[in-house]
Amino acid sequence: MNNTSRHCLSLLTNCKTLKTLKQIHASLVKTGHHSDPFFAGKLILHCAVTISDALHYACRFFLHFPKPDVFMYNTLIRGFSESGFPQNSVFTFIDMRRKSMVPPDSFSFAFVLKAAANYGSFIAGIQLHCQALVHGFDTHLFVGTTLISMYGECGSVYFAKKVFEQMLEPNVVAWNAIVTACFRCGDTKGARKLFDMMTFKNSTSSNVMLAGYAKSGEMELARKVFWEMKVKDDVSWSTMIVGFAHNGCFDEAFGYFRELRRLGLRPNEVSLTGVLSGCAQAGAFEFGKIFHGFIEKSGFNWITSVNNALVDMYARCGNVGMARLVFQSMPHKSVVSWTSMIEGLAMYGYAEEAVEVFHEMEGCGIRPDWITFVSLLYACSHAGLIKQGCSYFSRMKDVYDIEPTIEHYGCMVDLYGRAGYLQKAYDFVCQMPISPNVIIWRTLLGACSIHGNVELGEKVKERLSELEPNDSGDNVLLSNIYAVAGKWKDVATLRRSMTDQKIKKSPGWSMIEVDRTMYSFVAGEKSNKTTAEAYEKLKEIILTLRIEGGYVPEVASVLHDVEEEEKEDSVFKHSEKLAVAFGISRLCKGRVIRIVKNLRICRDCHTVMKLISKVYGLKIAVRDRSRFHLFNDGSCSCKDYW
DNA sequence: TTAGGGTTAG
């Protein structure tokens, strides 16, 4: 290789943007390197794999190339697969064999099988398996392992085991692959059996077990394997931390993170995104801030995934301003960063801002993906932007060629339903090209509950009962619809049938962080000291609100047909009221009160929060199951539309 | 070629 060639190669390797890539391409043409498959292959590799928005450039270049070799084909197959177009990988593989008569090598199979695994296509996978048989690659170590992993992803542990059994001398990687496949297909016992049978294990083998147990929610078994491991690498630690966070064990996640630091080990970006995700789910703002400080100090603040997790954490912990600051200071923003910001703003009802961010994103040349549109439509539905919502729904298909998924349809049902166009929402569901799932019907039932439509509510509940007969939430929603309409007989019948079928209402809980401890309150629970303290404070607050704020309890949605006074008593037990009372009693003045709740906030609690914010001059952030409510000076950021 | 992470409608 001469100096010019070496220079071209180094330019290609360091190229980061499509613009410089085009310049390098031009210089390759000048020097005559462009028709050399080696350089052409490298060029495509960088277009397709390294630079996110340059795949189309790679395709154009590839199509005009006179005789692409197997390396070029493999690169394009890999590029399609890694950029989220797995079907195109398969088409390219077929083209390679049929049109160009280029025989595939082991890499071609490995890449294309990974693509088939990515979109979980068992049919494509089995056809590729046949091809591998024809070319004699099925017992090849690399290809065999990818086949096992593909069958695992496609849910066929039977075929995965068959491939494994036919391998002549499976190495530790193949063993790890078959254990992973068992876990993916839910065969936890099979995975354990194979793990115990392994004569040689590497650190990945144990990490596979940790990940498998963590994904099946078996954290105790994961913990056992973890502490039995002689050498724990950073993947082992991050698997545990993330595993705990995903299984709702936030204290454990934070504990393992602390232990990791106590041992003098440096956490990696995966552990950090894991703990941040834990903070986001739990609403642990103070913890989140500590991790942010650590991230700044230890230089993780240039990593996009860590910043994305920070944006999400701040948004979900009630501080969308900080989420914005982190977002603005990010050195590089991916589609996930933009989507997280849109989603964050949408949760607060700041739909106009969310739409603005979306247009800014388009202006930067970032292509939105299907999740971006879910967030954007969510923003519109939660703020009553019906026209815009409809227009983005069609824009998604017409401009970006993104096929709407059940999630997008769900947003549209919510958009119409929440705004009161119940018949339109119902017709929309009936005309959907995808068959509606429980969530779609539940969204519609929720809308019927907001707008008090008994007739449609009953019709929708019937459909829900066919799909999921024993859901407590659905029964409670219908019961509320009856209660608001004053149909106490129907309420009683429904509640009797719930008792008969042993359907229990899931209790409402709220959490609040005080002095870096998370306190949780459950509706009606009076067993401990903190709850007693909260009840005492709440009594005093309610009295103040009655005198100074003119508060009258809204008890319409209380289930039973009982006396008004009893109904009042029942709404005073709501967990978010207890949490806010506890916050007022314990937190120093001037601090924002942040509450996380598992159910939707009720109308009476919403009123109380608004009044507290005015009478006590406090800012309160309540995250309910679906969105944020920021109470300040007597009003809420949701503009009472939720 | 095997293991860990961020955004997903109610």
From TrEMBL:
The keyword Repeat applies. One of its GO terms (biological process) is RNA modification. This is Pentatricopeptide repeat-containing protein At1g74630. It holds the Pfam family PPR_2. Keywords: Repeat. Residues 550-642 form the DYW domain. It comes from Durio zibethinus. GO terms for molecular function: RNA binding; zinc ion binding. InterPro entries: DYW_dom, E_motif, PPR_At4g14850-like_plant, PPR_rpt, TPR-like_helical_dom_sf. PPR repeats lie at residues 69-103, 171-205, 233-267, 334-368. The lineage of its organism: Eukaryota, Viridiplantae, Streptophyta, Embryophyta, Tracheophyta. Belongs to the PPR family. PCMP-H subfamily. It comes from the Eukaryota.
